[in-house]
Amino acid sequence: MYKIDELISLVNKQVESAEYPSAPSGLYEPVSYMLTLGGKRIRPVLMLMAYNMYKDNVMDIMPQALGLETYHNFTLLHDDLMDKSDLRRGSATVHKKWNDNTAILSGDAMLVLAFKHFGVNKAFDDFVKATLGVCEGQQYDMEFETRNDVTEAEYMEMIRLKTSLLLGYALKIGAVLAGASDEDASHLYDFGEKMGLAFQLQDDILDVYGDPKLFKKKLGADIVDNKKTYLLINALQLANPKQKAELMKWIEMPEFDSDEKVAAVTSLYNNIGIPELARKKVEELFAESLCSLDAVSVPEDKKAEFRNFANMLHGRKY
Amino acid sequence: MYKIDELISLVNKQVESAEYPSAPSGLYEPVSYMLTLGGKRIRPVLMLMAYNMYKDNVMDIMPQALGLETYHNFTLLHDDLMDKSDLRRGSATVHKKWNDNTAILSGDAMLVLAFKHFGVNKAFDDFVKATLGVCEGQQYDMEFETRNDVTEAEYMEMIRLKTSLLLGYALKIGAVLAGASDEDASHLYDFGEKMGLAFQLQDDILDVYGDPKLFKKKLGADIVDNKKTYLLINALQLANPKQKAELMKWIEMPEFDSDEKVAAVTSLYNNIGIPELARKKVEELFAESLCSLDAVSVPEDKKAEFRNFANMLHGRKY
User: Fold this and answer.
1) Which residues of chain A make contact with B101, given a CB cutoff of 8 A?
2) What is the rounded CA–CA span in Å between residue B128 and residue B282?
3) Which residues does chain A have with pLDDT short of 70?
4) Which residue among A100, B51, B102, B164 is the one 20 to 30 A from A250 at the CA level?
């Protein structure tokens, strides 16, 4: 069994040695730039881990792992353009370093390259479902920006599509390619999807309640931006009329002191009982996720790296 | 053997009956809108014609035909955004009817749908080569906009990638799916590619020398826009110093009377001998294209619809 760190190295090596046509460089340089900005390579690593539960030769599915990572980075490239973000992993985004049309077209080429790397195999339909689902998630995410009546169920479905689906399919595809049973592939999918949901909710919580000494960004950025997080959506649904009016006042205020807004909204969250609610949901999701892992019919020692991974995510404070 | 018109109907029926998920409608409505704006369905029809040379059951490859047409319309959707075009086939383009982000994301979903429809089969690698090549062609096209030293060879390579490649692969994929020999598949590819090049050069010629009574657009639009056509590129390369200075004066003029510019540049083209040069090239390409069709090892009666198609293109005046 490979350790997670070993798999990360293997994926990084694969990404760095990927060759692109030399021309037109204006098309392929942004692809290579995007793929070598770093990142935790979680999706291909999960795919290799799932495969490695059943088979030793993880190198056999490196093209598929590269396809998945290429697809993920394609979504980041186009999302950065749609969100008009300037920075990605501390470097200029493609549309800032080059221009909008380059971001569109190099992203398109990257999506084709993802299918090229992934190739023809028995997990093709799963790959299509994953890649289409992520587009659906991004669409809901954009639609939610202009709505104040998003429900918790709608929000969970959006983050499921936008983030968790690809984690679930990473595991499922690894299992399918290794010839695992349908039941195992399905349990691994559920493990990944639930863990992904828990991870995303943790993100929402840490933005407000993270340890300011450890958190990479300034706390409360989501509050400043009125981002429809699990916290804000539930606060809007659960607030009493007075709290709701106060919350809407801050959401609709055109100009404000950021620290003041963060303090006021955090205090509202606290009074409504949002942190407890969100933490309870995260624990539920982690528990469900581990249940699905338990159900996978391989010896316990084959699951060791998955448990390490889950524990690492569960315990994160930033 | 199916007639071209019968195949167009079959493709239109397939496109119109294609079903998309009902939600998110903001993602899938633009896809369906784009695919039902009309169009000549040339690529899927060529694919079906090539298949029909060897096999009768053209319905068997309808998913692949739909995949190809979906891919083609995806390129139009993103190209319209990159070119900031307002109209496509007389209707509002997707980014005008909705917005830029919708055009980006619905286009992305459309590219995934193209792969989904195309599916897993022995022509998958050809489909990848075609779809990646078109991105490369679009990249060169954008780069040429800001250059005045584009050579004829560079231009031919750009239109080969951007337009002809997909026509060639449409035919090749049809042949491959029908189990044709590698030689036949390759000859059909060449037939499509050469015919595509001839068609594109005809477009360049008709923009200036088309019959004003029959031509759909106002003549000379490419001249007004300084578009790097086969005519302009050769004029810049072949002009004597005085002609070149005159041509550059019109290219660089910030404000001008359109009719005056069109008349002046057309007169320069005539003096440099551009229309003869371009028409000679078109004839050469048509001849080469028909040579490749001759080389395909099927009885002559199976090629009848291809000859009709080629004659129709050859004789077009608008």
Assistant:
1) 82, 142
2) 29
3) 318
4) B102
pLDDT digits (tens, 9 = 90+) for B214-267: 777 789 999 999 999 999 999 999 999 999 999 999 999 999 999 999 999 999
| Whole-number percent of chain B with pLDDT over 70 | 99
Identify which of B104, B119, B124 has the shortest CB distance to residue A78: B104
**Chain B residue whose CA is closest to A24:** B136
Q: Which three-class secondary structure state does DSSP give residue B279?
A: helix
Chain A contact residues (CB < 8 Å to B): 21, 23-24, 26-27, 78, 81-82, 101, 104-105, 107-109, 111-113, 115-116, 119-121, 124, 128, 131-132, 135-136, 138-140, 142-143
Pairing outcome for strands B87-88 and A91-92: unpaired
Q: Is the complex ipTM more than 0.90?
A: yes
Q: Is the N-terminal amide bond of B63 cis, ω within 30° of 0?
A: no
- Of the residues A139, A140, A146, A176, the best mutation for testing chain B's interface (the one with the most B CB atoms within 10 Å of its CB) is A139
- C-alpha distance from B136 to closest chain A C-alpha (Å): 6
What is the reported pTM?
Answer: 0.95
Task: Write the residue in A81, A109, A120 that is nearest to B104 by C-beta.
Answer: A81
pLDDT band at B318 (very low <50, low <70, confident <90, very high): low
- B202-207: list long-range contacts, CB under 8 Å, 24+ apart: B202/B282, B202/B313, B202/B316, B204/B229, B204/B230, B204/B231, B204/B278, B205/B230, B205/B231, B205/B275, B205/B278, B205/B279, B205/B282, B206/B316, B206/B317, B206/B318
Query: Which one-letter amino acid corresponds to residue B89?
Result: R
In angstroms, the CA A217 to CA B240 distance is: 62
Helix axes A100-118, A62-83, angle to 10 degrees: 160
Tokens of A46: 């999960």
With CB atoms and an 8 Å threshold, state whether A135 touches B143: no
